[in-house]
Amino acid sequence: MNVIKGQIIKALSGFYYVKDDKNEIYQCRARGNFRKKGITPYVGDFVTFQIENETDGYILDILDRKNVMVRPPVVNVDRVIVVMSAKEPDFSLNLVDKFITIIESYDIEPVLLVTKKDLLTDDEIAYIEKCLAYYESIGYKVLFVSNKDSHNFTSLIQGITVLAGQSGVGKSSFINALIPDANLNTGIISNALNRGKHTTRHVELIPLQEGYIADTPGFSSLDLDNIDRNTLKYCFIEFAQRAGECKFRECLHINEPKCAIKDAVDAGDILESRYQHYQQMLEEIENRKVRY
To answer: Which residue among 56, 91, 134, 179 is buried most deeply as judged by most CB within 10 Å?
Structure first.
């Protein structure tokens, strides 16, 4: 029996397309015992599989995952690039924080890319630059770009990279900037990123430089289902850094006395909007209905 290792680069209609270390791709099905155990192979999974013939095989085992995203369903993600527009649709710190919080909850590195700088006045540019300077100061990689300029974004693609953002923010332009020469690929990816409701919603890894960009249907919702009230504060990295300074170990940074986070907000060391968005998300988590 010829058992080899590979990585799932596409899942479609019950088939898993697995690439081995020689860049050969096999169309595989998962063994029935996965279903019995309630395990689903995901795009990004490293697997062992058995070759049946030159093109087909069976997945035998799923190797350890470093993270699992549910929407979109992709695992072993190294980085999520949050693509936001400065205008049309308008820049929203609320959305920035929601995306970053959800990405942090999966223990994945977020990168913030703001597009359409060319549509702004000088005052609007100054405002967004001031906001982004804060995110950079707490440790995030940030880019603020004009769609009129040419850019080389290839250094952003590390391992498996997922794009997140609202429709219309410039994800297709970003892809075009990544692969300016590959018209065929660019067309496929651009169409996929703009796909309508009637098209197949599947995830696929597109090889790029030394890694992959995940062509996904995107973040289908910005809910906080996988975060509970006690873990939310750790998804705000500047809160987590100061957590040991609060009087109470389980401090939620709301009504407790001698809270280092509230003191830092008052001192201007934590962006006030970040704290407000934290409060809103905590309220959303506490008010969500229990699902059975």
So the answer is: 91
- pLDDT value, residue 247: 92
Q: Is 142 helix (H, G, I), strand (E, B) or coil?
A: strand
Beta strands in the chain (DSSP E): 3-12, 15-20, 25-30, 46-51, 56-62, 68-69, 74-75, 79-85, 109-115, 141-144, 160-164, 204-208, 211-215
Q: Which residues contact 91 (CB under 8 A, 6 or more apart)?
A: 84, 85, 114, 128, 131
DSSP, res 134: H
The answer to whether the CB of 127 falls within 8 A of the CB of 97 is no
Which stretches of 132-224 are assigned E, i.e. beta strand? 141-144, 160-164, 204-208, 211-215
Q: Is the peptide bond before 257 cis (omega within 30 degrees of 0)?
A: no
What's the rounded Cα separation, in Å, for the pair 21 and 7? 9
| Closest C-alpha to 108, from 53, 164, 191 | 164
Distance between CA atoms of 267 and 126, rounded to whole angstroms?
Answer: 22
- Residue 204: the pLDDT is 83
Strands (DSSP E) contained in 157-199 are: 160-164
Nearest-angstrom CA–CA distance, 70 and 81:
17
Instruction: Say if residues 113 and 174 touch (Cβ distance below 8 Å).
Output: yes
Please list the residues that pair with 83 across neighbouring strands.
Answer: 113
pLDDT tens-digit readout, 239-250: 999 988 999 988
Angstrom distances, CA of residue 199 to CA of 44, 166, 193: 22, 18, 11
